[in-house]
Amino acid sequence: MKRGPRVHFSFRSPFSWMAIHRLRRRLPDAHQRLDFIPYWDPDERTSADLAAAGAEFHYTPMSKAKHLYILHDTRRQAAKLGLRMVWPVDVDPWWELPHLGYLLARRLGRGEQFYDAVTAARWERGENVCEPPVLRAAAERAGLDGDRIVAAAESAEIRAAGVDCLVTAYHDDIFGIPYFRVGPHRFWGLDRLDDFLTELLGPATVPVPTGAPERVLVDTDTAGGCG
Prior knowledge:
Helix content: 40-55%
CATH architecture: 3-Layer(aba) Sandwich
Order of helices and strands: EHHEHHHHHHHEEH
Strand order of the largest sheet: 2-1-3-4
CATH topology: Glutaredoxin
Largest sheet: 4 strands, mixed
Oligomer: single chain
Number of domains: 1
Number of helices: 10
CATH class: Alpha Beta
CATH superfamily: Glutaredoxin
């Protein structure tokens, strides 16, 4: 079945956060026009379900040197975009919690609002969005039942939908985030956003906000580690 244009994103990745910020400045209805597909480091249960589906998680851990570089580079890029950033500290994070919560929020018609609440908590306030109280509060700010969103990670139906997202990522050869796709054309990283929009909208219709930088060059990485 032919799929429409899509964005693979991760709440873990600062570059995903920045890229989608830029995307929505240029395409305010991005959440309505594109399929937003969450991508995260799977837990043992999800990994087993992926293997049963004949898929796996394309990820190679980054080196310490690259990790340290990204810590500095993300602050630099956030400043260029005029974003306030507080680097979160992740202690044994369980990434199913926010990403499966997003899938339920989207089903309930509040996916965009939930995305905004979670990214604000994580990247603007440095909160651990893998902790149930933090995610519950974010969900409630998005107009959702916080307890129901937190419980999504234990729902067999939502977990199956999450596995489908990661299987799609596997077949799309996703190895890093953010990752954009339209038809056969694939674009990885913050610095490929303009190319994605050109392919999506055509060169004469890509909106460029006044005073915005034409290109932001960064060293992007996967949902694992810092990217």
